[in-house]
Design a protein that fits this description.
With 238 residues, the chain is an alpha/beta fold. It is built from seven helices and nine strands; from the N terminus they run E-E-H-H-H-E-H-E-E-H-E-H-E-H-E-E. It folds into two domains: 31 residues, no CATH class; 178 residues, Vaccinia Virus protein VP39 (Rossmann fold, 3-Layer(aba) Sandwich). It is 34% helix and 23% strand. Helix 6 links the parallel strand 6 and strand 7. The N terminus and C terminus are likely disordered. The structure holds S-adenosylmethionine. The site of S-adenosylmethionine has 22 residues, from helix 4 and strand 4. It is found in: Cytoplasm.
Length: 238
């Protein structure tokens, strides 16, 4: 690996000879990304952790003692941040997390490898949660097919399902944070969220790549509409 004139690490033709072009670009981006380096220094599993840190530093919804659900949690950056801020390690707060992929253990985080879109996922999640929660996070990103319309529908569909789940499990006053992509396709979602939450806004943390259409929808002050699931039992925070 060599450094360019700005001192940034570059993948040379020699070092990356056997990598595909997309892998080379990804690797170069990783090597030059200050958040990747910072995550290593801070012991965080992903650069994505800084997105949640930034959003919560501004809006303060992760409080000691609360219960959080983290959808699409692997490799675990958001779960690490949530666990620390709610005090999950010492049992004050609780974090329940799921992902399609495996995720190495995080102290205080109750994790299941699970497809959120699977018919049994809501019931499984509800049994893990054991009651209503204060915050639902979703950093899930649907796999893309390359067909723009299909991808947009899948992305929005995933967020809509996450929002519907949030409305089933949130306590009144609760918060929903979800990754969306700037496409205009989420207009219906925003309309629904405005009905169910006191404030709804889009946020783009500085750590979210500028060249990405990624942003987050932040819905706060859940109004407490009737649920379709029986999640009324008090929260267990063992
Ligand atoms: C951007 S990553 C999440 C990064 C994570 N917030 C962190 O800080 O480490 C998106 C994750 O969503 C997961 N995902 C996508 N669709 C999913 C689904 N239907 N059910 C569960 N997880 C899903 C992917 O497996 C992937 O790990």
């Amino acid at each position: 690996m060599a450094k360019d004139t700005t001192g940034r690490l570059r993948v040379t033709v020699k070092s990356a000879g056997r990598l595909k072009l997309s892998s080379k670009l990804w690797l170069e981006r990783q090597l030059n990304d200050p958040y990747v380096a910072q995550a290593k220094r801070d012991g965080l599993r992903s650069r994505a952790a800084y997105k949640l840190i930034e959003i919560d530093d501004k809006y303060h919804f992760l409080k000691p003692g609360i219960a959080v659900v983290d959808l699409g949690a692997a490799p675990g950056g958001w779960s690490q941040v949530a666990a620390k801020r709610v005090g999950a390690a010492d049992g004050r707060g609780k974090v329940v997390a799921i992902d399609l992929l495996e995720m190495p253990e995080i102290v205080g985080v109750d994790f299941a490898q699970l497809d959120f879109l699977h018919a049994e996922a809501p019931a499984k999640l509800l049994s893990m949660i054991g009651g209503k929660v204060d915050v639902v996070l979703s950093d899930m990103a649907a796999n893309t097919t390359g067909h723009r319309k299909t991808d947009q529908l899948r992305i929005v569909g995933l967020v809509e399902d996450a929002a519907a789940f949030a409305c089933d499990v949130l306590k009144p006053g609760g918060t929903f944070v979800a990754k969306v992509f700037q496409s205009g396709a989420d207009a219906t979602l925003v309309t629904q969220l405005k009905r169910d939450f006191v404030t709804v806004k889009h946020v783009k943390p500085a750590s979210s790549r500028k060249d990405s259409s990624e942003r987050y929808v932040l819905a706060m002050g859940f109004r407490g509409v009737p649920t379709t699931h029986d999640a009324d039992a008090p929260m267990a925070t063992s």
